[in-house]
Backbone:
């Protein structure tokens, strides 16, 4: 249930409602809107009598939340959430009218590689730098990433370009280490339901990019986001990166429906990953444009100066020139859609 306070309700009135919620053995989650405070009642699924709150001073109404995800739901937080990601120099915003484009290689491979690509994507107008230091590979014999050295190189690229860094964390015990270097933690598709990992990033003080499991439903994605939110981290960005289907021409099937569906169901920002979705570099630009047209708040795109020499995902990484042209196309598209880039 959520309790909507009247606009102008006093701190004392809000406090009394919170006290009653806690007294009943639930947790209260406050969301301070521009106009009014909304209080989420979090806990088990016991039915609560709305009458207990509706008579209290300052309470406007109660709304039952019937969906299994609560903190993530739009009922709880009707307006779009906008988060800041802190970088070396200033911060970037995700959500709201401004689009956020994250770009960089699939994996950090060397100092020269990451610095060259970081400067190129910055030049083209990217807002954040991506790059894997810990790579979840299907084969144990494939390149696994540079690990800690990769994180150090990402931090160096961030310091040189000012671009905040997003990178994947694969294990709960690695969260605090990765968070020392990264400005945003990525949970990959294969870990979307690694609940220990979700709890660990929920306790971190860094925003999280949560990718949809390749075999997960929209509701399961939102339940995974709920784990992070319920553990105390409000800054969760969702990412549609394609799901498995019978189609083999593309690497995955981008679920374009997921973008407006998620925007209806949740206040959290939603971005898309056309690189993992298509697996083909020459499909990345058209699918990127489609995602933005469908309402995505941003994109995460793999860019490599020499894709043919890349140590992972060779066929889907685009060259800096292609990325630069895509940014120009997105800029032209943003205006008519009421967005800025
Ligand atoms: C990636 O972004 O490089 C990646 C491995 O993504 P996903 O988890 O979506 O496959
Ligand atoms: Mn990749």
Residues:
């Amino acid at each position: 249930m959520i309790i909507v306070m009247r606009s102008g309700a006093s701190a004392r009135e809000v406090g009394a409602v919170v006290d009653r919620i806690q007294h009943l053995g639930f947790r209260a989650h406050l969301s301070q809107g521009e106009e009014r405070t909304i209080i989420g009642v979090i806990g088990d699924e016991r039915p609560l009598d709305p009458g207990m709150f509706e008579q209290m001073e300052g309470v406007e109404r109660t709304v039952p939340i019937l969906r299994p995800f609560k903190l993530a739901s739009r009922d709880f937080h009707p307006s779009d959430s906008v988060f800041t990601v802190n970088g070396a120099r200033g911060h970037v915003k995700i959500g709201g009218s401004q689009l956020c484009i994250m770009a960089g290689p699939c994996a950090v491979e060397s100092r020269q590689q990451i610095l060259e690509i970081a400067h190129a994507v910055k030049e083209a107008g990217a807002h954040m730098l991506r790059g894997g230091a810990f790579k979840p590979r299907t084969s144990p014999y494939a390149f696994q990433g540079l690990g800690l050295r990769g994180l150090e190189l990402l931090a160096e690229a961030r310091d040189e370009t000012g671009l905040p860094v997003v990178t994947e964390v694969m294990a709960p015990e690695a969260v605090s280490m990765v968070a020392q270097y990264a400005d945003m933690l990525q949970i990959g598709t294969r870990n979307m339901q690694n609940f220990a990992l979700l709890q660990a990033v929920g306790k971190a003080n860094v925003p999280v990019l949560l990718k949809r499991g390749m075999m997960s439903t929209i509701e399961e994605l939102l339940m995974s986001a709920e784990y992070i939110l319920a553990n105390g981290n409000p800054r969760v960005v969702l990412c549609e990166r394609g799901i498995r289907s019978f189609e083999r021409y593309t690497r995955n099937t981008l679920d374009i429906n997921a973008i407006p569906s998620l925007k209806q169901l949740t206040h959290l920002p939603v971005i898309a990953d056309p690189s993992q979705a298509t697996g083909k570099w020459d499909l990345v630009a058209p699918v990127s444009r489609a995602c933005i047209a469908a309402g995505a708040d941003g994109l995460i795109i793999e860019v490599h100066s020499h894709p043919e020499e890349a140590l992972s995902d060779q066929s889907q990484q685009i060259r800096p020139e292609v990325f630069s042209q895509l940014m120009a196309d997105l800029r032209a598209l943003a205006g008519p859609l009421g967005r800025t880039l």
The first strand starts at residue 2 and ends at 5. The chain has a mean pLDDT of 95. Residues 106, 276, 302, 312-313 surround manganese (II) ion (ligand 2) (CB under 6 Å).
